[in-house]
Amino acid sequence: MRKILVTGGAGFIGSHLCEALVKRGHAVVAVDNFDPMYPRAEKERNLSWLRQQPNFTLIEADIRDVEEMEAVFRKDDVDRVFHLAGRGGIAQSNADPFFYLDEILRGTLVILECSARHGVGMIVNAGSSSVYATSKGKASKESDDTDRPASVYSACKKSAELLCHAYHVIYGVGVVNARFFSVYGPRGRPDMVIHKVTKKIMAGEPILDVQPDPVRDFTYVSDIVDGLLGTLEVPRNTYEVINLGYGRPVPVSKSIKILEKELGKNAVRGERVLPALSDVAMSKASSARARQLLHWQPKVRLEEGLKRFVEWYRDRFELTPD
């Protein structure tokens, strides 16, 4: 039985991953600082099943605090780390750059330093498809140029990957940088497009008509978790960068039409606006490396994933509107 640390373990992807690891029989330590980006009550709900499991431990701490994280690593004899902590959001990062720089880079540095000191064999670092700012609509490969970030967020995520590489070279820490593509599903953050649009449709509020229509490689959360679980078989002392994306991008407008159908209600169209300068026009993953290394194949089509999301949303926000 491995002792696995998951940072950001109470969040969207983190809580799903913790559940999957516990069900596989692993001992899981989750660290989360309950960032106020969205209500603490939502993260507490994410943990409702996990808190009842004997192999799960939650530690409320900030990954930027060296002493707190040293205590976690020293006490729990961690074998592997899934580093998912860090506030998301392209627009938010541009508005609050110093916070993102501190949380993503300092936080990652603390995790790497503690891992090196305590002999952790492997770190899986949550990356972002936003690093492919210059993909120009082609399927993004891990070898593509990522040196021209278009947002503070993507610059920080790329820089975190570089820190991981440095610690791999200096200390032999194994690293998999997993670049996520437009993850959606139950427990999704309220600031994410699927969640925001669903809320506005249900409330009868207008949604912005972004033109030209952004195209996104929406990837369901259980597929992302399957990819992360696959990294458990990656040998120690390895350095890898992998894409985790469905590989069949669709216009955001199509996802809205599917949501309208599932909700039984049409969206109110609002003001036509241009995409933000930081937005990539199209994201599309080449996942050949993930298939080769992790034997990973995404399974959940967008229509099925949005159906599941709407079922969760109705259950969560219509039956328990608090």
What does this structure look like?
The protein has one domain (3-188, 217-247, 283-299): Rossmann fold, CATH 3.40.50. The model has no long low-confidence stretch (mean pLDDT 92). The protein is globular and about 55 Å long. The longest helix has 21 residues, at 97-117. The strands form 4 sheets. Strands 3-2-1-4-5-6-11 form a 7-stranded parallel β-sheet, sandwiched between helices. Strand 1, helix 1 (12-23) and strand 2 form a beta-alpha-beta unit. It has helices at residues 12-23, 40-46, 66-76, 90-95, 97-117, 152-171, 193-203, 221-230, 252-263, 288-294, 302-318, and strands at residues 3-7, 27-32, 56-60, 80-83, 122-128, 174-180, 183-184, 206-210, 215-216, 219-220, 239-244, 250-251, 268-273. It has 322 residues and is of the alpha/beta class.
CATH level-1 class: Alpha Beta
SSE pattern: EHEHEHEHHEHEEHEEEHEEHEHH
Q: Looking at this structure, what is the CATH superfamily?
A: NAD(P)-binding Rossmann-like Domain
The tally of structural domains comes to: 1
Strand proportion, as a percent range, falls in: 15-25%
Spatial ordering of strands, largest sheet: 3-2-1-4-5-6-11
Quaternary organisation:
single chain
CATH architecture: 3-Layer(aba) Sandwich
Quick one: overall form? globular
Helical/strand content category = alpha/beta
How would a crystallographer describe the biggest sheet? 7 strands, parallel
Euclidean distance between termini CA atoms: 38 Å
Q: What proportion of the residues is helical, as a percent range?
A: 40-55%
Question: Using DSSP, what is the number of strands?
Answer: 13
Radius of gyration: 19 Å
The count of helical stretches stands at 11
CATH topology: Rossmann fold
Uncertain stretches? none
Mean pLDDT score: 92
